[in-house]
């Protein structure tokens, strides 16, 4: 089985390439997406991005987050919102409690599933959360 681009890049959130350097980011030949040295660092990046969306930009619901994370010009945003909502058990317009680690983990897992088409490695997500909290 061929791994998805996100998994090949250890970037399960398919975070776009920018000039900003992330912890755990390594040089990549991919011209569009970042590459991380391990999946936990890729998951850490999703946690960091979600924190920025929620606290800096006020994007505190699945619909608001996904509308920016997966814009209509690149994705079927409504299908993405529905998939994340079903996977997390959260309503699309329900405010997300960023302090609730279980809901946050579920959100990261759902994003990874939608981005890559396979169930995420929950151990890697938990390690990403530890990196997010300590590094």
What does this structure look like?
The protein has 135 residues and is mainly α. The relative contact order is 0.18. The longest helix is centred in the middle third of the chain and has 18 residues, at 39-56. 53% of the residues lie in helices and 3% in strands. The model has no long low-confidence stretch (mean pLDDT 95). Helix 3 packs across helix 4 (77-88). The chain has one domain (5-134). A two-stranded antiparallel ribbon has the order 1-2.
Highlighted features:
135 residues, mainly alpha, two-stranded antiparallel ribbon, 6 helices, globular
Shape: globular
List the quaternary state of the chains.
single chain
Distance between the termini: 33 Å
Q: Which percent bin holds the helix content?
A: 40-55%
Major sheet, described briefly? 2 strands, antiparallel
- Total strand count, please? 2
Strand arrangement across the biggest beta sheet:
1-2
- Overall mean pLDDT: 95
How large is the radius of gyration? 14 Å
* Count of separate DSSP helical elements: 6
Strand percentage lies at: under 5%
Order of helices and strands: HEEHHHHH
- Give the uncertain stretches in residue-range form: none
**Structure classification:** mainly alpha
Question: In summary, what is this structure?
Answer:
By secondary structure, the chain is an all-alpha fold. The chain has helices at residues 5-8, 39-56, 62-69, 77-88, 101-116, 122-134; strands spanning 25-26, 35-36. 33% of the residues are buried.
């Amino acid at each position: 089985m061929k791994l998805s681009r996100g998994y090949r890049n250890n970037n399960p959130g398919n975070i776009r390439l920018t000039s900003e350097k992330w912890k755990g980011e390594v040089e990549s030949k991919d011209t569009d997406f970042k590459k991380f040295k391990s999946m936990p660092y890729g998951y850490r990046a999703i946690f960091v991005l979600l924190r920025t969306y929620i606290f800096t930009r006020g994007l505190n619901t699945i619909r608001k987050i996904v509308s920016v994370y997966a814009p209509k010009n690149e994705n079927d945003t409504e299908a993405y919102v529905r998939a994340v909502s079903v996977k997390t058990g959260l309503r699309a317009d329900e405010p997300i409690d960023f302090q609730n680690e279980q809901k946050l983990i579920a959100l990261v897992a759902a994003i990874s599933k939608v981005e890559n088409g396979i169930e995420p490695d929950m151990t890697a997500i938990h390690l990403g959360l530890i990196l997010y909290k300590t590094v």
